[in-house]
Design goal:
Blueprint lengths: L2 E4 L4 H12 L4 E5 L19 E5 L5 H11 L3 E4 L6 H6 L1 H24 L3 H6 L1 E7 L23 H20 L3 E6 L1 E3 L8 H10 L4 E4 L5 E6 H14 L5 E4 L4 E3 H15 L11 E4 L14 H7 L7 H14 L1 H8 L15
Parallel strand pairs: 1-2, 1-4, 2-3, 4-5, 5-6, 6-10, 7-9, 8-12
Antiparallel strand pairs: 9-11
Length: 351
């Protein structure tokens, strides 16, 4: 029996797959290989006997069921999702399809599989539904999200993730499927598709392009290094209680403008630009619709119940991340080719 990881060629999913396969644990990657999924992110484990890849769109119920029948998973780590807020503004339909219909298909397949497991296997089986803190909406100047925070999503992305969270909990409450829901703060690290803030700013600054910052850059996010998130997901799968929710945050709140300036500072030391400090490239642009002001996560319950805590500070994580993008230009070029070239997304609502 294997651990099935959905979206295993994406940013967080590939980090989970690399960890599991690197430890010699049997892992099956189900991925549709959309624009943000790339098998180059799994080159380090592609030849491992512990790793298998299935080119499966989770919106294809028959394909999902067949994969479950072939691999008989001992756990499902569900990370496949459309995840970029700006893209959800431009084209919400894909988010409804993948995040809601896709999650439904997986829950149904997992339910059928679970009902045919033996008593021992049922006792250890887990379905970990990986979600985001954005489902909780926006915070003011103070406070932090907890597992008890009411949902109040403001974008098509967060609304569809909220819907998928509700589906996952309903399948636990109604059908007894051992579901665990996790909600994380903003992830960053190697292998993140360059439409997201940190890789976009890093690559744009490296090439002397303007660095767009929404509004005045005052929006606040809590930043979590991706390997610390992997620790949390695996801890929840191994030791979490079905029906419970676990939050993972980096304890590293930063204004967006301060994140951009930190990246510029790292670049100034790693790759000095003869034209001057990289911060000169910052350009404030019109804010996106429905932009949440602040996210912050109280992960103390996850620390108490799972023994989890982040191992990376923002200062060490951001330096490691920037260096990775500087050292992996080929990967950056290949994943963007024909898909995305740093253009503005989410500036208007297109329906």
């Amino acid at each position: 029996m294997s651990i099935v990881v959905t979206g295993g060629a994406g940013f967080i999913g590939s980090a989970v797959v690399r960890r599991l396969a690197g430890e010699g644990r049997s892992v099956v990657n189900l991925d549709a290989l959309t624009y943000a999924g790339n098998l180059e992110s799994l080159a380090a484990v592609s030849g491992s006997p512990a790793y298998a890849f299935e080119h499966v769109d989770i919106c294809d119920a028959d394909a999902v069921n067949e994969a479950f029948e072939r691999h008989r998973p001992s756990a499902v780590l569900h990370l496949a999702a459309e995840s970029h807020v700006d893209r959800s503004i431009d084209g919400p339909g894909a988010f409804v399809r993948t995040n809601l219909l896709g999650t439904f298909n997986l829950l149904q397949a997992a339910r059928r599989h679970y009902e045919h497991l033996g008593t021992k296997e049922r006792g250890s089986f887990r379905f970990v539904h990986v979600s985001t803190d954005e489902v909780f909406g926006s915070l003011g100047e103070t406070g932090a999200f907890t597992p008890e925070t009411p949902y109040q999503p403001h974008s098509p992305y967060s609304a569809t993730k909220a819907g998928s969270d509700h589906l996952a909990r309903a399948w636990h409450d109604t059908y007894g499927l051992p579901v665990i829901v996790t909600n994380c703060s903003n992830n960053y690290g190697p292998y993140q598709f360059p439409e997201k803030l940190i890789p976009l700013i890093t690559l744009s600054a490296q090439h002397g392009r303007r660095l767009p910052v929404y509004g005045k850059g005052s929006n606040v996010r809590d930043w979590l290094f991706v390997e610390d998130h992997v620790d949390g997901i695996l801890a929840a799968a191994a030791n979490g209680e079905p029906g419970e929710t676990y939050l993972f945050g980096g304890g590293a709140e930063r204004r967006n403008i301060d994140v951009v300036r930190t990246i510029c500072s790292v670049l100034d030391s790693e790759r000095p630009d003869p034209a001057g400090p990289h911060e000169r490239l910052i350009e404030f642009v019109k804010d996106r619709p429905g932009h949440d002001f602040r996210y912050a996560v109280d992960a103390s319950a996850s620390t108490a119940r799972l023994g989890w805590r982040p191992r990376h500070s923002f200062e060490t994580g951001i330096r490691e991340t920037v260096r990775w993008y500087l050292d992996n230009g080929d990967w950056c070029e290949h994943v963007q080719s024909g898909k995305y070239r740093g253009e503005r997304l989410g500036s208007v609502v297109t329906g």
